[in-house]
Write a structure and sequence with these properties.
The chain folds into three domains: 171 residues, no CATH class; 219 residues, Tandem AAA-ATPase domain (Rossmann fold, 3-Layer(aba) Sandwich), CATH 3.40.50.10810; 222 residues, Rossmann fold (3-Layer(aba) Sandwich), CATH 3.40.50. Helix content is 42%, strand content 15%. The chain has 27 helices and 22 strands. The strands form five sheets. It has a seven-stranded parallel β-sheet with strand order 8-9-7-10-11-6-14, with helices on both faces. It is an alpha/beta fold.
Amino acid sequence: MDINNLTLEEIEKLQNKLAFLQQEKISLYKARKRALLIPEKTEFNPNFFIHNTLPDFIFAYPKEDLKLISEYPEWMTDWKQKKPTQYWYLFDYEDSYITVELIKNPKLKLMGYYEGDLRKIGDPLWKHGKYYFAIGPENLLKIFKNFPESEINKWTLKFKILLVKTIEEFFNKVSLRKELDQVTLQTVDEYIKNKLNNKYPIETKENNAFKNQKLGLLYTTNFMPFALLWEMGTGKTRTAIETFIFYKQRGAIDKCLIVCPLSVINNWENEIYKWSNCSFTILRGTKEEKLSLLENEETDFYITNYEALLTFGEILHQWVNESTMIVADESTKVKNYNAKRTKELIKLGKYTKYKMIMTGTPITQHAYDLFAPFLFLDNGESFGLSYQKFLWKYFHQNGYKLIPYRDSLEKISNKMYFKGLRFLKKDCIDIPEKIYVQRIVELPEYNKKKYEEMKNYAITEIENSEKVTAAIILVQLLRLSQITSGFVKDELGQEINFTENPKLDCLEEIFDETNEEKIIVWTRFHRDVENISGLCKKKQIKTVSLYGDIKPEERNKNIEKFQNEPEIKVLIGTPGTGGLGINLTAANIVIYYSNSYSLQERLQSEDRTHRAGQTNKVTYIDLICKNTIDIGISKILKAKKNIADVITKDNLREII
């Protein structure tokens, strides 16, 4: 298509595409009276606002005011009144213009036309807007229908090129979105075979992607930003990694910042290694040390936690740019709009359009929890820029509670899913019935010191003993496992909790991620049961317990409550309690806070959820302290062996 000399046939095709867009009721941008956000460090660049599509509003300003914009970053607050000139420049392209007469042309009757001070329509940020008209399917259609080629040439060539290209690009995007929305998990392989010549969007390290991962990658490699609203255990981390690879291979981005909970950092480390050949670094240490890590331009993934944004955000603002991809994992951690870490993440999101949020529970308690994560994701396209206006639009107040209007939840849901995909484990047809996940945490310095002391003591005691039985070794291992669980016995035999307990913190994060689904927490020690019960009480989660000190009659009542009473969310127990035949199929998430050394107890505890009556796939999560006995115990159980059968004096060092 020669944009300089459009034929009548080509103009007619563009008209038809615009009519299609009009029919679909999808504007080129969601119309809203708002200022487009300008990052503080970004010099004024009209292209920044385009993002490959036209805005809804073309704002017209006097030429001298445009000059003021380009020279003075704080233009929003410090403009002085200027006398309008005959020609008003288009806000988006300084060297394109339209005459006032053309805007006001009665032949066009442009929808959304307004003349006057824009402060009167509710947005004080626009100090000087005098004329504007909406750019959308309806108005573009009118322009093409009413103006022949010779008349359209009154618009500058640059703007016309933008107009035609935008129509083409947006039409293709809308058509592709409609096409992908028809693809199901059952038909995704057929779609890849027929439409993509059986070629996956990227070359992968492993070719065993689940169907939901294949479909997800088709969306993320065509639409940015995007939300992966996938239930735990459905593989969203791999899709995020492969999305980065896709855009990097095409030169769109050169690095990725992962922001996630502290307990998930090591999981990202494992997943990046498993699914790609990319390099990564975990941003740890002082500000200076983190800055040094950021200066390594050869790294692909930079991983940090949400809390680090409070002290490290200023440095990241200088580092993130339009070539950076940002992934907010477990994005419910920034659901509180007023939290400082939330505001820091939202600021980072202004610098790039390559963004993803990931969570299995997009709405943890209230629908308004979506506002802040989506403000980071799309700079207000979905729900606007003002949290207060969002609340006014979708909710009404009843005392201290915010109650959604009758159709608000449906509207919010539609906007959420327009920018993302939702998968549940039960819908993912090729995911295994049992899903195994490790959440690896690190011991704090004091706990680590105590662990090393106990480890050295155990090695010395065993290696210097002439007669060493498995029972003697297991006693030493037990003391190490107690430390990784967050407590230690003093000289008097009393159990004392450590001040910091990373496993308990990780468990709290999992509770937040799972949106009050029913969960079983198995643990070896009674002290763990007390600590976990205390956490649940603090979070107002109703629980029942199942361990040795509870009488058999009460155990049966607790099992019945967990199975049948919706308000009972967590069962806390020791895996050896209760014998065979117990049915706990109400849960589809099982957490091993600390493992038993018995393979039989492990397998038996798994089978209590995965048996007849279970309609969902079950996720088993092991909480593992890095570089401790937890890893050795996990490996032995995974190999279907008992600890007592394989532990010896000779292999002790390897296990602990």
